[in-house]
Design a protein that fits this description.
5-stranded mixed sheet; 998 residues; mainly alpha; 45 helices
Length: 998
């Protein structure tokens, strides 16, 4: 074609109008001599323009035409322009699949497989595909025949002759025929093996469910039996050789490419188990060892090849085990574990493009449907289907899933699977990633019928359907439960009370009857409160079920809603603040402490919706609030009541933040730096208690003396209080020191100081709804026998004359926390030479400290306690680590400024930096200390009362495990890890504390 320079040809313009991206290249291809008879035919251009990728379709057609003999070439072109069915099919495939275009270029005569258009050709089954593969006698010819059959299947798909479900079923039927053909080739190659055994091939996964992808591993299980008179061992060896050969025939790459991988890893024991087992061996394994996920996989088991009777026997034998799986002991923790999306191994840059495993992906739908089948299929045979879409329809018809939800999921699943099919069809590669390239997205969108702006339309539809799945895949478990109790839609099928109880029990609720009562109370009626709660509860119930105690979470939510349900801001908070509802669910279902704190003042739930609400307040901020409240109060009791209310609120803030950081949320994963978690809690609780003590001190002084006490007075934090390492259940260890003001007698000052101490302790322990703060002054000179409060001079005299090694060691944690700042600093100056003695400790002092530690280990361990699990006094626990660190502080603190800290982890890091302890040993001690501290915190969070060892109640110890990051069913792993970590720490203590030279 010739055109005026600078002007585009009419063909170029037409090609552009028909959707070609590179009209110049297309025009050159049409100018080839081979296309002389058809290049100007408008029918051809229109057909090319109707494909997903006109440029790709034309290139594929050129390759076929060039590969044909001259005579056949004209037959193809003539048929192409005169026969619309062939034209649509051939060009449709060429525009959607580069891989099938490659096949046709290698085997150009295969285009003739697309010419026939009989009724039976429209919906072939296994028999038709078997006929299509009948001439295959070796792996290469099987691959060619397979691709020829796949060509006709893909043509029906891209032309819309078959829908998604029919296409997936045909792909599974083609796989069935291919497995049979491969097994026949293997048998022909080894007739002696075939004569010794019966071998059945059972399809699993998508092939078993007749919902296969274009390119997917074909999951199978092999069952074998010896033929009459044949030794079973020899028969199993023969069956194994046949099965392995059949797998290679399908999986290996030859000059004709590959078909797909045959994956037998779903068999008992996975890759470690024998490839072929007898039926009795399969059943013995499933009855004794199988896990819940294996029964979930068996939902789709279907005999497809080999001995049909043996395959049918297998499916019939495992069926009762599948539908009885919900009665198994570990079903609930297994379900909790399986319900979490496994996205950890997906690279961050790919997770948003994952059609299968990403949030709102195909696996969300498939798993939800399969779980509901397992729960309700034991009493309803209509749910016994291997097909996701058929099972979803049956669940809706039975009232197990709301019809509207099922319809939305059906639509979303079909769209996402169609995307997956088209992505795989392009190069016949196994992938679930949405492409990033603009041309690939354009082809994908056009293949799904989007023509105006295919890329934008595709992205919009994909995100919309993924959002539907994300929203509904959890709700479909729970929304029918609400329908069962609220009874607001009488025309729709709904769960019976029995079915609702079964579902709740399967999802981890120990008392389904009580849970249903709570749901009825929360969701019944036509009030705004009930309507909002009906919207929230499906999601909340999923979060509760994700915890160790779903019943407590639901009960707590009912209590909070009863208290605040008529408060407009509460319902608005949960409805509009996405994080608030999830945070509340985590807090209410993780143990007793946080819910108890919340129930005493439910309005604190507002903290959970504030972006900054979970950040601990600083000590200065807390003291300012507390002292201002004391100044406004009329008397000491009411003043400290306000102070203790602030403490309760801040304790709730700290526990809530700790739980949410430890559990993680859907948007924010769990905090992986456990040391940082421990430090945050220790600092927050210590600051809070310091502010509380300051408020009680101010209240006690104001009630009797106004603004000025006759003596300067300071509170010195000791132990974990001074070390900023308080746990939730710790007492406040303190010393009280005073110094008479000028002109005040020692007697008057002493009376005032003792009166203040007594009043502070009384006020902080008054019986109220708020948790008390116990003041412990037993670390004072002479212990319980000594005066409760001393002057600074008295401390100086005592320490100069009588101080023992343990008292100097205790002073390592001394830090002023309230009262007169100058007096506090003077006290620290007084004790610094004692706790960091010049030139370190002498040998006698080191021996005394070691002797005291050994005596404490033998005398103070509670009777009957397991020393390997006691967090404070046990092997490698808190005491072991702290005494080891404190010994280094007393020996080297005079020379190493970094050791002069009250904090254990800071001191340990400084000792490591000063090369006083190897980095590996320091890491071992730090890991053990952090773990033991977290266990103590977890016990208090779960039980609502302090404890130094793991709970004995199974649900409580499971909750401790969840807080520590262990999945359901892994309590044993948690205890083993604790023993292992602390055992290693004890070995370091033996060397560094007991064995190291001073």
């Amino acid at each position: 074609m010739t055109t005026v320079p600078g002007r585009r040809s009419s063909t170029f313009t037409r090609l552009l109008r028909h959707g070609f991206i590179d009209p110049s290249a297309a025009e050159q291809l049409l100018d080839l001599n081979a296309f002389a008879s058809v290049r100007s035919d408008p029918v051809l251009l229109e057909a090319l323009g109707a494909t997903a990728d006109p440029d790709l379709a034309l290139r594929g057609l050129v390759r076929i035409v060039e590969a044909e003999d001259e005579g056949e070439r004209q037959v193809l072109l003539d048929t192409l322009v005169t026969a619309k069915p062939l034209r649509d099919r051939l060009l449709g495939v060429l525009g959607a699949s580069e891989a099938l275009g490659d096949h046709l270029a290698r085997h150009p005569r295969d285009w003739q497989a697309l010419v026939t258009y009989e009724a039976v050709d429209l919906h072939p089954g296994v028999a038709e595909f078997e006929r299509g593969l009948a001439e295959a006698v070796d792996p290469d010819s099987l691959r060619v025949a397979y691709r020829r059959c796949l060509l006709t299947l893909a043509a029906r798909d891209v032309c819309g002759t078959t829908d998604l479900a029919q296409t997936a079923a045909e792909l599974a039927d083609l796989a069935t025929a291919t497995l049979r053909a491969a097994l026949a080739i293997a048998r022909t190659a080894a007739p002696e093996d075939a004569a010794q055994c019966r071998l059945a091939v059972v399809a699993m996964g998508k092939c078993g469910g007749r919902e296969l992808n274009y390119v997917s591993d074909v999951d199978v299980i092999f069952v074998g039996e010896a033929r009459d008179g044949v030794d079973e061992t020899k028969a199993m060896q023969a069956a194994t050789r046949l099965a392995a050969h059949m797998m290679r025939i399908c999986s290996e790459t030859t000059v004709e490419g590959t078909i797909w991988e045959v994956d037998a890893n779903l068999r008992p024991e996975g890759r470690n188990g024998p490839l072929v087992r007898t039926l009795s061996s399969h059943l013995a394994y499933y009855q004794r060892w199988a896990k819940t996920w294996e029964f979930q996989a068996l939902l789709k088991a279907r005999a497809v090849a080999g001995d049909p009777e043996l395959g049918a026997e297998y499916v019939e034998a495992v069926s009762p085990l599948v539908w009885g799986a919900a009665d198994r002991e570990n079903f609930v923790p297994d379900v909790q574990k399986m319900r979490r999306r496994v996205v950890d191994n997906i690279p961050v840059d790919r997770i948003e493009r994952e059609l299968k495993l990403g949030p709102g992906g195909l696996r969300d739908v498939e798993f939800a449907v399969q779980l509901l089948q397992l729960v309700h299929g034991r009493s309803d045979a209509s749910l016994h289907s291997g097909s996701t879409l058929k099972a979803l329809r049956a669940l809706a018809e039975g009232g197990y899933v709301g019809r509207a939800d099922a319809a939305q999921l059906d639509e979303a699943y079909r769209f996402l699977r169609s995307m997956e099919h088209r992505i795989q069809l392009y190069r016949l590669r196994r992938t679930h990633l949405v492409p990033e390239d603009e041309a690939d997205l354009r082809r994908l969108g056009r293949s799904l019928g989007m023509r105006t702006d295919p890329v934008t339309e595709l992205n919009r539809a994909w995100k919309r359907h993924a959002s539907v799945v994300r929203r509904l895949h959890e709700k479909i478990f729970y929304r029918p439960l609400l329908d069962a109790v609220a009874q607001l839609a009488p025309a729709e099928s709904r769960l019976s009370a029995k079915a609702a109880a079964i579902r709740l029990e399967a999802l981890g609720y120990a008392d389904p009857a009580a849970a249903l009562r709570h749901l009825e109370a929360l969701s019944s009626g036509v009030s705004r409160k009930a309507a909002i709660q009906r919207t929230l509860l499906p999601v909340l119930l999923g979060w509760f079920a994700d915890s160790a105690d779903p019943d407590a979470g639901l009960l707590g939510f009912r209590k909070v809603s009863d208290a605040l349900g008529k408060t407009p801001w509460y319902l608005r908070l949960l409805r509009d603040e996405g994080a608030a509802a999830e945070n509340l669910a985590r807090v209410l279902s993780a143990g007793r402490l946080a819910p108890d704190l919340l129930m005493r003042a439910p309005e604190a739930v507002a903290i959970l919706g504030d972006p900054e609400g979970l950040t601990p307040r600083t000590r200065a901020h807390l003291e300012q609030e507390v002292l201002a409240a004391v100044g406004r109060a009329g008397d000491a009791e009411s003043a400290v009541a306000v102070v203790r209310g602030v403490r309760r609120r801040e304790l709730f803030r700290t526990t809530a933040a700790d739980l949410i950081d430890s559990y993680g949320t859907e948007d924010n994963p769990a905090e992986q730096d456990h040391g940082a978690l421990v430090d945050r809690v220790g600092s927050a609780v210590s600051d809070l208690n310091a502010a509380t003590v300051a408020g009680a001190l101010r209240a006690a002084v104001r009630a009797r003396w106004g603004d000025t006490l006759p003596t300067r007075f300071a509170v010195i934090g000791m132990g974990r209080f001074g070390g900023h390492e308080l746990s939730y259940g710790s007492d406040a260890d303190v010393l009280f020191v005073h110094r008479p003001r000028e002109g005040v007698s020692d007697e008057e000052a002493a009376r005032a100081a003792n009166t203040v101490v007594g009043e502070m302790r009384r006020l902080l322990q008054l019986p109220t709804a708020d948790p008390p703060l116990l003041i412990d002054a037993d670390l004072r000179p002479e212990g319980k026998s000594g005066p409760l409060v001393r002057t600074l001079k008295s401390y100086e005299a005592y320490y100069r004359r009588w101080s023992l090694a343990w008292e100097s060691q205790a002073l390592l944690r001394a830090e002023p926390v309230a009262g007169d700042e100058d007096l506090g600093r003077d006290f620290i100056e007084l004790v610094d030479p004692l706790r960091y003695p010049l030139e370190g400790l002498g040998e006698d002092a080191v021996r005394e400290i070691r002797r005291l530690k050994a005596r404490m280990e033998s005398e103070r361990m509670p009777r009957g306690a397991d020393p390997t699990l006691h967090t404070k006094l046990g092997r490698g626990g808190l005491s072991d680590v702290e005494w080891t660190v404190q010994l280094m502080q007393m020996q080297h603190g005079w020379a190493e400024p970094g050791l002069r800290t009250t904090r254990t982890r800071e001191a340990l890091a400084a000792a490591c930096a000063a090369e006083l302890i190897p980095a590996e040993d320091a890491q071992t001690l730090d890991e053990a200390w952090v773990l033991a501290t977290r266990v103590r915190n977890a016990v208090m969070l779960v039980r609502g009362r302090p404890g130094d060892t793991f709970p004995s109640d199974p649900r409580e110890v499971a909750a401790v495990g969840r807080y520590l990051g262990y999945e359901p069913g892994h309590v044993g792993d948690m205890l083993d890890d604790y023993r292992r970590i602390t055992r290693r720490a004890r070995a370091v203590v033996e060397e560094r504390f007991y064995g190291a030279a001073s």
